[in-house]
Amino acid sequence: MLSFRIVVLPGDGIGPEVVAEAVRVLQTVSELSSDFELKLESHQFGGCAIDSTGEPLPSSTLKACQEADAILMGSIGGPKWGVNAKVRPEPGLLTLRKTLGLYANIRPANLASDSLLEYSPLRPEIAKGVDMIVVRELIGGVYFGTRKEQGVAPDEEVAWDTMIYSVQEVQRITRVAAQIALAADPPLDIHSVDKANVLASSRLWRKVVTETLKNEFPQLKLDHQLVDSAAMFIVCNPQKLNGVILTENLFGDILSDQSSVIPGSLGLLPSASLAGAPSVPSADFKPTSGIYEPIHGSAPDIAGQGIANPIGTILSAAMLLRYSLGLEKPAKAIENAVRKVLDLPEAGGLGLRTADLGGKVGTKELGDRIVDIL
Amino acid sequence: MLSFRIVVLPGDGIGPEVVAEAVRVLQTVSELSSDFELKLESHQFGGCAIDSTGEPLPSSTLKACQEADAILMGSIGGPKWGVNAKVRPEPGLLTLRKTLGLYANIRPANLASDSLLEYSPLRPEIAKGVDMIVVRELIGGVYFGTRKEQGVAPDEEVAWDTMIYSVQEVQRITRVAAQIALAADPPLDIHSVDKANVLASSRLWRKVVTETLKNEFPQLKLDHQLVDSAAMFIVCNPQKLNGVILTENLFGDILSDQSSVIPGSLGLLPSASLAGAPSVPSADFKPTSGIYEPIHGSAPDIAGQGIANPIGTILSAAMLLRYSLGLEKPAKAIENAVRKVLDLPEAGGLGLRTADLGGKVGTKELGDRIVDIL
Ligand SMILES: CC(C)[C@H](C(=O)O)[C@@H](O)C(=O)O
Ligand SMILES: CC(C)[C@H](C(=O)O)[C@@H](O)C(=O)O
């Protein structure tokens, strides 16, 4: 029996509440299976770690993450550790991404169920059928290039950042996008997004994406979009970008957040950040390390009330099984259970949706129902 | 009588058609007034200039633009001068912006009339009342920092661009945003957009915007948004950003295009690129140089058919009168005429809208009606 070590980082705000439900779901699929077992352990990360240790990413947490097969995260941050705080959670997040080499951020944006169409800010005829997966390069570009702060010599009145990409960095993220496109049947189209009419790093990006796909994945369809025009399409014609949106770190930050509001509630969407191509089960199989987390924030305003939507975290757990552990079957089972719960007719005024979707069900009850279905 | 010299750059595709109507509108307000006269002259710029002179921005055109009080532009580019062409129009545009010192790009996004709500990709209740003005820094940031292409020594496998801002560059664009906010009654709120949780240039941006407004315009309300979260709001709650969105070059490129699809047709929206704060009429009044153009592209697919929407260009002409020439009255008159035309009940199957808004009226007829109303 395969045994996997999963590190859990509940984080701040609603993080611990939503993570608790995803943990129950993982424990359930682990108990139900005779092929694998999951060993879960919790560690401190984010604002709570700042409070207890003075730093967002204590070395014991980093070490546990490095030794884990995969990491499930809640959400971090909050006003207590905001812009004016001396120590903030963000650097911890960026260090964790960089140290684990998590270069591939994967963010699907789709409506888990047509019954959710009414929550989209887009007209239903435009939102219906939206099915995009943003594949964002996560440890390169302007996030990790050299920079100079204002007030630093020689030119104190100036600040700058460097947006930098190497051929190898673009190749490897292109391969992840291609693997994801190929996992679908028929394979998904790839829309590469850049600003090649202005930026040198984008011209390199466009050239390397084009060549890598042509040489290694000639069966995939590729087009190129400028980031400004991609941002327009995501509002007025998102289906034009159905498939895989492949882009660099900063554009991916913007476009993945922009697309994530189409389904109407951030509470629904999962994400994965991987250190390599998704795992493919085989004899000499080795898990691909990754962090899995809902895309929503720590929502301190509703923390502790038991009303947060756990679905984004539960679907993140499904991605963890699929991408890090190569366990497609239990991943699909979780996704189907989520879809079922969302589509169940609302019963006796109780409803099967959390408050963000106009329902009255609590975090734990929703988790219960998903566990029951499994 | 004041006399102003206006350079007209019709450009490519539908550019000449839409510009022709805006020119008629300008000639009409000039004839109707005894206070000012407009002297218009046409020059080549863009793809048409590449075809006839080998370069997008011939020196005669640049010289005329430098001597003009203001510039009215159509649209440039097209597949003929696309990504693979040896000479492309974009560098001409960037040179023109830089040479004329056009550091302030102003892009309103609003629904000229509630009767257009049905064309918005957003749900009517979300689109209704959207009224944003993006003020984008246009000649700084990553567009004009040093860069290195792939294939250039020493590290040929790498390409980079520099996102750079100086205190003075951020001060002057902040002042323009403040002037625009103050021109409204009550003054508009300012939403400054950056990525200060990651970028040094954004931290400078945030600090300078905060200080400049606090010291020079303490009466204005300011908040700060991260670019990823601003991109979300523009889709799910754009009214949260009603007022002035003040941002740097690259973020402004993305967010202004994203907001521009809210009104349902790109054909409706104008833009201004200014070399200083908007002109304020006075005794020693000097026009502020600027380029005024619709935000839509050259739309080669419908060029020459006489069906393009001239409203974006006509509203750009109104901005020209207001911002460069300090002529508020004729600017307002044009804007009112446009609103009237859009709200006229459709008459006898003909309609008063162009094809992009589901109507049947041609470019010239729409221009006729606006001239009539004036
Ligand atoms: C918190 C911030 C540094 C981070 C980013 O910009 O990458 C966040 O926006 C994200 O997308 O995970
Ligand atoms: C053509 C391109 C260089 C330009 C830009 O990015 O500034 C365009 O997108 C614009 O916004 O005017």
From TrEMBL, chains A, B:
Catalyzes the oxidation of 3-carboxy-2-hydroxy-4-methylpentanoate (3-isopropylmalate) to 3-carboxy-4-methyl-2-oxopentanoate. The product decarboxylates to 4-methyl-2 oxopentanoate. Gene3D superfamilies: Isopropylmalate Dehydrogenase. The lineage of its organism: Eukaryota, Fungi, Dikarya, Basidiomycota, Agaricomycotina. One of its GO terms (biological process) is L-leucine biosynthetic process. Signal peptide: none annotated. Belongs to the isocitrate and isopropylmalate dehydrogenases family. Keywords: Amino-acid biosynthesis, Branched-chain amino acid biosynthesis, Leucine biosynthesis, Magnesium, Manganese, Metal-binding, NAD, Oxidoreductase. This is 3-isopropylmalate dehydrogenase. HAMAP family: LeuB_type1 (MF_01033). Pfam families: Iso_dh (PF00180). Residues 5-370 form the Isopropylmalate dehydrogenase-like domain.
